[in-house]
Amino acid sequence: MTDLSPAAQAILDAYQFAPIDDHLTAAAVLRSVADQVVPYDDLKGSDPDAWTRDDIRLDLLAIADELEQLDA
Q: pLDDT per residue over 54-71, tens digit each?
């Protein structure tokens, strides 16, 4: 199996270990995405303008690209 980045592995773990219900799985994955892209510790005292929406989008897409490569 391909070695994943810590962010992509956390997302995959959230999906694999989430409850079977689709909405609960989606919620678990979204929470994991939020934790990987904007960790809670980064919110404390950080510059609110440090990340733009484009930066966040690119980070999310990079994680998605990495996960999609698992099927390649």
A: 787 788 888 878 877 876
**What number of other Cβ atoms are within 10 A of residue 29's Cβ?**
17
Question: Please, which residues have CB within 8 angstroms of residue 13's CB and are 6 or more apart in sequence?
Answer: 32
- Tokens 């810590």, residue located: 6
pLDDT digits (tens, 9 = 90+) for 10-20: 888 888 887 77
**What is the longest distance spanned by two Cα atoms in the chain?**
41
Q: Quick check: 70 and 3 in contact, CB under 8 A?
A: no
Backbone angles phi, psi at 33, to 5 degrees: -60, -50
Containing H/E element for 70? Answer: none
Q: Which two tokens stand for residue 44?
A: 């404390």
Q: 3-state DSSP: the chain helix, strand, coil percent, rounded to 5?
A: 70, 0, 30
